[in-house]
Design brief:
194 residues, alpha+beta, Double Stranded RNA Binding Domain, SHC Adaptor Protein, 5-stranded mixed β-sheet, 4-stranded mixed β-sheet, 3 helices, 9 strands, globular, HPF_long/plastid
């Protein structure tokens, strides 16, 4: 497994790097998962240290968590505790559904954009069509999974939304966390009216 351990605005010592690598390796081994990469970033946040940890699993799933603590060790230990809980739930769901994926998840590439907010002109003419200003562009992956796996991946990544290719019909679908706490699912092929 490849590790990328860094600090934003702070130095990361070799003892902390060794601690991070050992703890992540132990956690991944505990759940018999195959991880490919681990990215851990430490940064000062007010009067504490923040830790953002992401582990990429060979199945295409991501486990992501964020925690803060009085020092880097406490922040990391809190983050690992959260990730351990996520991975435990992930393994329980796999066991409960008796579904083991034999092949890795297929993924396709895609671009993500960050757009600048539009500014209202209070009655100004709209002669030109709306042209959003792109302020950042990155690459992302779109996994080809079942709806259940998409929900599980969204929960593992602590994300509010996940775009995926539905294995059942090959169409692009979306799962998202609703304000009422439930999960929403958008499947354009199911609503196609002729």
């Amino acid at each position: 497994m490849r590790y990328q351990i860094s600090g934003k605005g702070m130095e990361i010592g070799t003892a902390l790097q060794t601690h991070v690598q050992d703890e992540i390796a132990d956690m991944v081994d505990k759940y018999a998962l195959r991880a490919t990469d681990a990215h851990v970033v430490f940064s000062p946040e007010a009067h504490a240290i923040a830790c953002e940890a992401v582990v990429h699993l060979s199945t295409g799933l991501l486990a992501r968590c964020h925690a803060t603590g009085g020092d880097a060790y406490a922040a990391f230990d809190s983050a690992v505790e959260k990730m351990d809980k996520q991975l435990r739930r992930h393994k329980r769901k796999l066991r409960d559904h008796h579904h083991k994926r034999a092949e890795p998840v297929e993924v396709t590439g895609g671009a993500t954009y960050i757009l600048a907010p539009s500014e209202g002109d209070d009655g100004a003419e709209e002669a030109e069509p709306l042209q959003p200003v792109i302020i950042a562009e990155t690459q992302t992956v779109i996994p080809s999974v079942s709806v259940g796996e998409a929900v599980m991946q969204m929960e593992l990544a602590s994300a509010a939304i996940l775009v995926f290719r539905n294995e059942r019909n090959g169409e692009i679908n979306v799962v998202y966390r609703r304000e009422d706490g439930n999960i929403g699912w958008i499947d354009p092929s199911a609503g196609a009216a002729g």
